[in-house]
Amino acid sequence: MKTPKFLNVIVAATFMLVASTIAAFAVPATATTGVNVRSGPGTGFGIVDTLHAGEAVNVTECQGGWCYVEKSGPDGWVSGNYLQAAAAPAAPAPSSAANDAAAAAAINVFGTIAGAVIGNI
């Protein structure tokens, strides 16, 4: 299927907007079960710690189905299959629609890269 050129431009522009926004957001999540925290994104990397079921983390990036998590203790990589988006906190003060859209896009991209949408705004 041939994609129209303008659609490619829109997709590329959206990706650049989201990619520049992702670094600014950490997505709160919890471990769905006990899972190893690794030094890199894959089972070939060493285990640096373990997450317990229900343990809270902040997801800062995902690649190839693996997500980098920040937590108390050593940070590292966890399979996105074992993370679930945390419940949304109380609504903050009103902000611009552009910021809200960028935050929602960043959350959806984290989930999409990890293999499933882990949260929506």
Automatic annotation (TrEMBL):
<dbReference type="Pfam" id="PF08239">
    <property type="entry name" value="SH3_3"/>
</dbReference>
<protein>
    <recommendedName>
        <fullName>SH3b domain-containing protein</fullName>
    </recommendedName>
</protein>
<dbReference type="InterPro" id="IPR003646">
    <property type="entry name" value="SH3-like_bac-type"/>
</dbReference>
<dbReference type="InterPro" id="IPR052354">
    <property type="entry name" value="Cell_Wall_Dynamics_Protein"/>
</dbReference>
<dbReference type="InterPro" id="IPR036028">
    <property type="entry name" value="SH3-like_dom_sf"/>
</dbReference>
<feature type="domain" description="SH3b">
    <location>
        <begin position="20"/>
        <end position="87"/>
    </location>
</feature>
